């Protein structure tokens, strides 16, 4: 009996958007208007690439970025929740599927000593170039019209589950914890026995309730959370059963 916990990262594990948090490193802690207005829907990774070039051009170094990123606050109750999952790893496999990047997530989890809680992290690959600039790439290519060009979380989840099945691992239940519009695609892939946990007041919750109103509800159960304590209460019930 094993459960799979799937976490988004921004506004779920941490209470901010890690990509916009890095702007604190910019001169006067803001981006020039031209750069800020250059974002095109569905092309966030390219936009962040330009932000990292701007930071590099302004002499922002890796250690300063790391210092800034490790001050990002965790969502209320999240530290307790991750501690609880860490103590019960024999029952929970735990993955992150995020549109952030490997460098940011790695820094933040390692600084708080939570990297061992997660079995795998699926996010956009990032690295520092020989000139000290942070670069970011698309996670993968996909054919899903609903998702941003660089990442379809449903595809990631499906491929992970297929790989686990090949290893002989199947899950009693999948619990998907997220907040954003790009979390809807994987939630719609969940089955009747699974649980989607959208964050209260965020896009994912609104989209799930719109689907229910148009009489095409998601198959899985839906439990809304506002603090990670709500998630922990549910997991405690799950392992008692």
Automatic annotation (TrEMBL):
**GO molecular function, one example?**
phosphatase activity
**Coiled coil, from the record:** none
Question: Where does this protein hold Mg(2+)?
Answer: 8, 10, 179
Kindly give the SUPFAM superfamilies that the UniProt entry links to this protein.
HAD-like
Task: List required co-factors.
Answer: Mg(2+)
Write out the entry's keywords from A to Z.
Hydrolase, Magnesium, Metal-binding
**Keyword Hydrolase tagged:** yes
Which residues does UniProt mark as catalytic?
Answer: 8, 10
One Pfam match, given by its short name, reads Put_Phosphatase
Q: Where along the chain is substrate bound?
A: 19, 99
Q: Which family does it belong to?
A: Belongs to the HAD-like hydrolase superfamily. PHOSPHO family.
Please name the PANTHER family in this protein's record. Answer: PHOSPHATASE, ORPHAN 1, 2, PYRIDOXAL PHOSPHATE PHOSPHATASE PHOSPHO2
NCBIfam families xrefs: DKMTPPase-SF (TIGR01489), HAD-SF-IB (TIGR01488)
Name of protein: PHOP2 phosphatase
Lineage, uppermost ranks: Eukaryota, Metazoa, Chordata, Craniata, Vertebrata
**In the UniProt record, what gene is named as encoding this protein?**
Phospho2
């Amino acid at each position: 009996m094993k459960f799979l916990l799937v976490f988004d990262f921004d506004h779920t594990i941490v209470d901010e958007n890690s990509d916009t948090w890095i702007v604190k490193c910019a001169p006067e802690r803001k981006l020039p208007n031209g750069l800020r207005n250059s974002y095109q829907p569905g092309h966030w990774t390219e936009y962040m690439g330009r932000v990292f070039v701007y930071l590099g051009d302004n002499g922002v170094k890796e250690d300063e970025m790391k210092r800034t990123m490790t001050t990002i606050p965790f969502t209320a109750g999240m530290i307790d929740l991750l501690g609880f999952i860490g103590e019960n790893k024999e029952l929970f496999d735990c993955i992150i599927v995020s549109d952030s990047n490997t460098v940011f997530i790695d820094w933040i989890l390692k600084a708080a000593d939570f990297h061992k809680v997660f079995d795998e992290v699926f996010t956009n690959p990032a690295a520092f170039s020989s000139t000290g600039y942070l670069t970011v790439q698309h996670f993968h290519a996909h054919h899903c019209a609903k998702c941003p060009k660089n990442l379809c979380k449903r595809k990631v989840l499906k491929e992970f589950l297929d790989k686990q099945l090949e290893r002989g691992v199947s899950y009693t239940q999948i619990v998907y914890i997220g907040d954003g519009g790009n979390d809807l695609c994987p939630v719609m892939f969940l089955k009747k026995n699974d649980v989607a946990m959208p964050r209260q007041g965020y896009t994912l919750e609104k989209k799930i309730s719109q689907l229910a109103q148009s009489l095409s509800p998601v198959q899985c159960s839906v439990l809304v959370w506002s603090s990670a304590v709500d998630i922990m209460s549910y997991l405690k019930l799950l392992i008692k059963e």
